């Protein structure tokens, strides 16, 4: 494989990341965060219909009926008891500081029944989450991410003590924060509901991205002993090049699997799988990018500054 000077072009790669993250932060300032009912509190109502429903029309009608913001989407599942039988469910998420009253819930059901082809005797489900419980769920999710980050710093510092482990740990953590911000930016730009699936995806991405980073750090540690006469820049570049094929092959295999999962979910309209697979794909791509172009160059910058 032809050698490429990653360190020479590091500012370009940092700029690309900065632009992507900045776009997400601007979207956050403009749009805010579309928290799922699980995090914000409110009421989720599922109503079985005989076919697809115009979700934008459903939003407008239900909002007019109860005076609260509504986010609707269609879900499809297969009935295992009947061959080739598709179950259509209209899901309405009403995020609010208080759960819906009985009168408001009845108004929602009546509005949908009067304007859409609701299945007679079909399934109806309601889930109410108090704002305090939603905030607790959000805080627990963030706590899980913070604990994982703390464990990462401790482990990488211990594992790579030979190459100034604390510097390796912090730069690896910065790369992980980069991946999380890229995925978060996708949620803010496209106004996707941020819920428990986001936390699950983030923890998965952290594990994947860290594994890639550790592989390159291992090569830097080994090459630091084998290439004593070379500069740090040469050692880091060589280590990245030696790990690149494995990193790309692993990423391609993983992305193929997750993309297949997403396509399967999209064809069968399995919303929960689509919501999980999409951030994974974006996060895995960001993870490969940060592993190659962010973590190791940052570690090099830290080491050079400490040697002055």
Structure description:
The longest helix has about 35 residues, at about 230-265. A hairpin with a 7-residue loop joins strand 2 and strand 3 (about 85-95). The radius of gyration is 24 Å and the shape is elongated. It is built from 9 helices and 4 strands. It has helices at about 10-30, 35-40, 55-65, 100-115, 130-160, 165-190, 195-225, 230-265, 270-305, and strands at about 40-50, 70-80, 85-95, 125-130. The protein folds into 2 domains: about 10-35 and about 135-305, Multidrug efflux transporter AcrB transmembrane fold (Up-down Bundle), CATH 1.20.1640; about 40-130, ACT domain (Alpha-Beta Plaits), CATH 3.30.70. With about 300 residues, the protein is α+β, with helices and mostly antiparallel strands. The two termini are about 35 Å apart. A 4-stranded antiparallel sheet has the order 2-3-1-4. Helix 1 (about 10-30) crosses helix 6, helix 5 (about 130-160) packs antiparallel against helix 6 (about 165-190) and helix 8 runs antiparallel to helix 9 (about 270-305).
């Amino acid at each position: 494989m032809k050698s490429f000077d990653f360190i020479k072009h590091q500012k370009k790669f940092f700029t690309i990341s900065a632009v992507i993250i900045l776009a997400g932060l601007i979207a956050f300032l403009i749009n805010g965060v579309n928290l799922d009912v699980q995090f914000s509190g409110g009421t989720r109502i599922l109503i079985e219909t005989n076919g697809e429903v115009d979700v934008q029309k459903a939003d407008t009608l239900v909002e007019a009926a109860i005076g609260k913001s509504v986010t609707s989407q269609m879900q499809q599942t297969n009935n295992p008891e009947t061959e080739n039988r598709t179950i259509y469910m209209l899901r309405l998420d009403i995020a609010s500081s208080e759960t819906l009253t009985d009168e408001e819930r009845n108004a929602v059901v009546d509005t949908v029944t009067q304007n859409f082809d609701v299945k007679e005797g079909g399934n109806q489900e309601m889930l109410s989450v108090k704002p305090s419980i939603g905030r607790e769920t959000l805080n627990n999710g963030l706590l899980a991410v913070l604990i994982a980050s703390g464990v990462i710093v401790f482990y990488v510092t211990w594992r790579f003590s030979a190459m100034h482990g604390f510097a390796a740990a912090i730069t690896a953590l910065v790369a992980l924060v980069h991946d999380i911000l890229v995925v978060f930016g996708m949620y803010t730009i496209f106004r996707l509901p941020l819920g428990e699936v986001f936390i699950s995806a983030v923890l998965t991405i952290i594990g994947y991205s860290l594994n890639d980073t550790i592989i390159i750090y291992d090569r830097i540690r080994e090459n630091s002993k084998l290439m004593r006469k070379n500069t740090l820049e040469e050692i880091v570049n060589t280590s990245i090049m030696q790990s690149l094929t494995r990193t790309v092959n692993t990423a391609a295999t993983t992305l193929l699997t997750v993309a297949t999962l997403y396509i399967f979910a999209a064809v069968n309209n399995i919303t929960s799988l689509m919501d999980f697979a999409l951030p994974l794909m974006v996060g895995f791509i960001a993870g490969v990018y940060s592993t190659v172009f962010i973590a190791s160059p940052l570690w090099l910058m830290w080491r050079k500054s400490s040697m002055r």
